[in-house]
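Ticket #4471: complex job returned nothing on first submit. Input attached below:
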Amino acid sequence: MEKDELSDIISDESRIAFEPLEPRFLSDSLGRLKGRADALVLPVSTKEVSQILRYAWEHEIPVTPRGAGTNLVGSTVPMEGGIILDLSRMNRILSLDKDTLTAEVEPGVFLKDFQAYVEGEGFFYPPDPGEKESTLGGNISTNAGGMRAVKYGVTRDYVRGLELVLADGTVLTVGSRNVKDASGLSLKNLIIGSEGTLAVITRCILKLLPKPETSLSVLVPFGSLLVGIRNVLSILKANVNPTAVEFVERKVISLGEEFLGIQYPRPDAASYILLTFDGREEEVEASANRAKELVMAQRALDYIVLRDKELSDGIWKVRGALVKAVEAVSQQEPVDIVVPIDKSSEFIDYVNQLEQEKNMQMICFGHAGDGNIHLCLVRGERDEETWNRELKENMRLVYEKAFKLGGLTSGEHGIGLSKRPYFLSGTSSENLEVMNRIKEALDPKGILNYGKSYITGGKEHAETV
Amino acid sequence: MEKDELSDIISDESRIAFEPLEPRFLSDSLGRLKGRADALVLPVSTKEVSQILRYAWEHEIPVTPRGAGTNLVGSTVPMEGGIILDLSRMNRILSLDKDTLTAEVEPGVFLKDFQAYVEGEGFFYPPDPGEKESTLGGNISTNAGGMRAVKYGVTRDYVRGLELVLADGTVLTVGSRNVKDASGLSLKNLIIGSEGTLAVITRCILKLLPKPETSLSVLVPFGSLLVGIRNVLSILKANVNPTAVEFVERKVISLGEEFLGIQYPRPDAASYILLTFDGREEEVEASANRAKELVMAQRALDYIVLRDKELSDGIWKVRGALVKAVEAVSQQEPVDIVVPIDKSSEFIDYVNQLEQEKNMQMICFGHAGDGNIHLCLVRGERDEETWNRELKENMRLVYEKAFKLGGLTSGEHGIGLSKRPYFLSGTSSENLEVMNRIKEALDPKGILNYGKSYITGGKEHAETV
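Support reply: We reran it on our side without changes. The output follows.
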């Protein structure tokens, strides 16, 4: 690679660096996978992104795009040297169009900053993944979900348009400010969730909603998880339109309680369902009342309406801190399997059995309303070699079970490197072939995030199961 | 083409025919474009579809897939001879899964039959394009929209999974019963709206909602369309979550009134906004009341709550019959342009001016809540040659205006043949190239619906502007 040519494009020395690079740019949020790269560039315009990609294209240099690097699956680990293309300096909120309920942003804007900005203007951006210091471009690249997906859907549902740069430097715009679109292939939808393998996102038009006037959370303790999950299925059919439907087992909550020093009510429960309703005041009250009648008739132990803001915040804080609470105690491997919603309890039962059988702590919690289960496999006191061997074996078993139940490798984290072996083993060769033909069609030299997710073929780097 | 080989696959004589074919199989709903084909087959299984495609693939025979043929843009017109693959006999509703709120169907099921079936079971399938005798496979292929899109979204939002057959006969499944998916490229979303150019849909898993408990419509007359559209923008920001927000001008309604013998109230109005709210009783009432306060403060002439079922049905019947009312009087060309919602009134103003200037009747109505405008250019007494010339010129002008406003060729009808010249002229060469590279990747022999929509390149059939 010619340092001079790259420096001609990015002339500002504070936005370009060469080997050796800071380790944080060579990994993801967990920091366990480490790649290598020759250069790091931080473009500030679409033009710079296009010029860098054109240069990389001409010289067949691998490019690894990244935002804040908060992903959990190694999507941002550069595997082949080359250039790290860090979009975090392209972080301007460009416009808010109150008539079309859309905003235009650069990809490096933090989710938390965008949410705060639009809410300050009376609007609402529903996608709400746990990590708020992730970038919007990263959210789009993994089709991030989060707690509000039950009512509002996922990131895909809030992307109206994208400006993209293809592997060869070509700039194009897909989608638009329009609400409906039946005009040709939906390139926008192909790019969403493609983890930087097909194009680099340089601008986003996002859909907003009017800000809900109020919201109310309810904690529902149950004597068993199975009863809790059955209640979730009833709630989803009951025209009460909950925003969030989370589940968590008592044994898991204890970890979060210790971590934060906040107590959940009804410690005698085996599991909790945590509900939120939002909308207009009277609507929220009516929904919460109807849900109460429903669950109290179906063996809920209690129905604790969290009107006290401090209590409500504390309850959600514990739920939100579970991964960090686990990570504080021991290394862990996060899994975000998704199964059809009626299969959640069967999957969790299986994990609980496996936990006993294999003597490895397994923490389950997550989005009961959409079957998206966060599972942490915990290392505990295992030495490196034992941990690697047992983790691999147990991961294989949980994914096998999920696939048997009709589930998928990832609901919202993406595949990246670390979930790739499981994704490849759980996806038909026909599907993988079509995905790879599309990769080949858009990036025939294979420079963009090669070796990640679905990409198979000549350049094989990640291990397979 | 070897008749015997095709007859070996489709042995039932009632499900195969050879040239000359009934004219209805060679066209679309309008019947003005006519193609030609050597054979018509009506498969009843995925296996048969796969065998037919494998045969066509080996012999490089063009294949034109179709459902009920109700499209308005010539998507089902066979341009190159070959085989018409009619999916209408694959019309079984296979299962309804009440726990995951999904149904599995074959692609030939009529929308109206599916809606009736799921509503009978207490569920709701929101996509609601005007033509209820369209097939679900056809709806998916054009990403059909309809009146309820404001609140509920379009067909894309209700497709969980698809079984597909690729051009070479390969069968694959994309998507699943799972709610969330961040696992590899979203092939499902690439296929939705692709108008039969990438694959043939043989099975669909559709998402359902609980059936809304009640609904209520309101007719709001205004002194001008501009004021009406401004009110629509306010309503969309007001947390009243309307299901449908339609607009229609008084001069247009008169046609429907004559056609059906039903009168709209307040004939002194220049335009009407027609609203629907659905949900729980108290929710619907609260939304309707709040919307009333809002529009009465913003120059609505009246706020007519349509509690009388007969009146409400009549009002909607007139709205639904507008295209047929126009078509009954004269030949017309339907356009379903979409523009950003705040640009609707500017677009309609332009059309009204053009109507005067060019002395050609132009009927505008449609989905005010999503900027999707149905426009009929009416032939009147013009002779064939004059009509063709003037239609072409005026179509060019209205599309140019729409593109200038940031609009798109089609919101829900698709591109097919008849909107292709406008789509090609309004889409950047970069986007077209990427679409065509994907076509080439999935169907390198170009046998599936060649010459339709975005497809350019070697085999050019449709005229361009």
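Chain A touches chain B through 89 residues (CB under 8 Å). Closing as resolved unless it happens again.
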